[in-house]
Design goal:
Structural class: alpha/beta
Largest sheet: 6 strands, mixed
Number of strands: 12
Order of helices and strands: EHEHEEHEEHEHEHEEEHEHH
Shape: globular
Distance between the termini: 41 Å
Mean pLDDT: 93
Strand content: 15-25%
Low-confidence stretches: none
Length: about 300
């Protein structure tokens, strides 16, 4: 099998979704490709729900891969020829790599969102709220919430509470939790005030949607991972920080999931480290004005 790195004619990459104009994925990816010395382009395209099939059909032979955001992470599944076990588990893919196989082009799907959440949290170190089977709280019930559920389990949670604007739409999370063997509670977002102080929270709500919610950290080691990043800081993250908790920026997730995507585009394996990955990560973080190290 030809190593994907040796497909020199496939140099075009892009992020798709709706809305997409605010996306910083091109900034992150292009910063990485400068360090890696590969001649890739990376654009952004507005693709609404229902438009992905036609968009992919119109792509040329130069296409190497796609990054996917809302609302396409589930809609892409019927287009994929091969998927990683994590995509099969979650029913969500945020990455598509185009691979030449004989006279065919195969679409390989991966999910890098989970590690995009896990790595920044793990880098913070001491997480008493998740040790020995703690409780994680997820705000929202969409595709990113599925990744947050799996990430919470990997970080040590045995109970996950989901607070959703429409709990009836959390069926995919209930099915996933059953497969993973994690206890899942689903509540309306209006019930969040009754949850009390929280040790680990992942907000998958759109930017500003968590503002004003009664999010109270349980102590100085409590973590709010707000996946929103535009505008930043959100009112929710500022309130959490002012109350003494630790905050992770949505750009921390975006950077780490992008690193997984770049690994997949180049090697076909989202877990295979990049050449001089530490330098790649620094360049990416600096490109979006993050400190060189997570939590720095």
């Amino acid at each position: 099998m030809t190593h994907p790195w040796h497909e020199p004619d496939r140099t075009a990459l892009a992020v798709l979704g709706s809305p997409i104009a605010h996306s910083l994925s091109p900034t992150l990816h292009l910063a990485a490709y400068v360090v890696l010395g590969v001649p890739f382009t990376y654009g952004r395209h507005e693709v609404a729900s229902g438009g992905l099939d036609a968009f992919v059909a119109g792509l040329g032979p130069e296409q190497r891969g796609l990054s996917l955001t809302m609302p396409l992470k589930r809609e892409v599944l019927p287009l994929l020829d091969r998927t990683t076990p994590l995509v099969d588990e979650l029913g969500v893919a945020n990455t598509v790599a185009f691979r030449t196989s004989g006279d065919r082009v195969l679409l390989h799907g991966a999910n890098t969102d989970v590690e995009g959440l896990v790595r920044p949290v793990a880098a913070l170190g001491h997480l008493p709220g998740l040790r020995h089977g703690g409780t994680a709280t997820i705000l929202g019930s969409g595709a990113t919430a599925a990744s947050a559920l799996t990430a919470s389990l990997r970080l040590g949670a045995s109970v996950v509470r989901v607070f959703a604007r429409d709990p009836a739409r959390a069926g995919n999370l209930v099915t996933l939790a059953t497969r993973l063997g994690v206890t899942l509670e689903v509540h309306p977002l209006a019930d969040l005030a009754a949850a009390g102080p929280l040790g680990f929270v992942v907000s998958t709500l759109p930017g500003g949607a968590a503002d004003g919610l009664p999010l109270v950290p349980s102590g100085p080691d409590a973590v709010l991972f707000d996946v929103a990043y535009e505008p930043w800081p959100t009112a929710a993250s500022r309130a959490w920080s002012d109350a003494g908790g630790r905050v992770l920026n949505g750009l921390d997730m975006l950077t780490e999931q992008a690193i997984g995507q770049i690994r997949f585009f180049l090697t076909g394996d989202e877990d295979e480290l990049l050449p001089d990955e530490a330098a790649v990560r620094r360049a990416m973080r600096r490109a979006v004005r993050l400190p060189d190290t997570i939590g720095g």
